[in-house]
Amino acid sequence: xxxxxxxxxxxxxxxxxxxxxxxxxxxxxxLMARRADRLEALAGELRRSGVKVEVGxxxxxxxxxxxxxxxxxxxRLGGLDxxxxxxxxxxxxxxxxxxxxxxxxxxxxxxxxxxxxxxxxAKHFRAQKRGRLVGIxxxxxxxxxxxxxxxxxxxxxxxxxxxxxxIELAKHGVGVTAIHPGFIRTELVPGMEKYPFVIEADAxxxxxxxxxxxxxxxxxxxxxxxxxxxxxxxxxPERLAGKLF
Length: 245
Ligand SMILES: NC(=O)c1ccc[n+]([C@@H]2O[C@H](COP(=O)([O-])OP(=O)(O)OC[C@H]3O[C@@H](n4cnc5c(N)ncnc54)[C@H](OP(=O)(O)O)[C@@H]3O)[C@@H](O)[C@H]2O)c1
Description:
By secondary structure, the chain is of the alpha/beta class. It has helices spanning 13-24, 36-47, 66-77, 101-128, 149-169, 201-213, 223-235, 238-242, and strands at residues 4-8, 28-33, 53-57, 82-85, 131-136, 174-181, 183-185, 198-200, 218-221. The chain has eight helices and nine strands.
């Protein structure tokens, strides 16, 4: 049986680490993002492991182009078993700045772009009556980050979408995994060092691929301490919980 996975946001950070981990486990991989040069360089390197690696250049914020891009990449891979909506951006915006252009772009990539790409994969999964959709949300979708309200909202929206999709698609043989990372050292934000409990992208990728292979519905990564801290933080007064970030 083929084991084919497509990952958006695979030109760096967590997406690249996920691609490397899937290839290490013998999967054929489809890499999606905007920067073709980085995707091609990674694909060239990964192909040396003997697996099939295909590239699909896409801007997920251009949501009307996403279905065709996913269809074409799936075709070149020769099928699809797992789809990971990982592409994401963040933005810090002072509330009251009078400019929500960055916020709109965050929603266009993290929410609309993610659901457009998941929807494209779901079409095939429903037809073949199997497959797994994976969304990379964030602990910010559970506990808001002050100054990144729209990032937090985009992830909360994605998490809720994934929950609804899981219930809807179960009878079609399609699984849905929601990933809630804490802080991972990537290019997402400069100065990641100042955030608590930072882990490396390859360690996060190993835990995520384990959860996908085990068919888990949810994963918080790293589990320690967030799995235990988040339920407590929810009970704290908001101002105190906000200091966690
Ligand atoms: N790092 C963390 O601490 C952390 C924590 C929680 C959640 N996450 C989530 O994890 C995911 C990966 O983030 P990361 O930390 O690996 O960030 P990253 O290093 O900045 O990588 C982001 C990836 O998304 C791609 N991307 C951005 N905009 C895109 C667009 N419009 N269309 C297609 N691809 C796009 C980028 O590629 P191109 O620029 O080539 O398009 C890049 O490959 C994101 O969803 C992020 O929100 C990260």
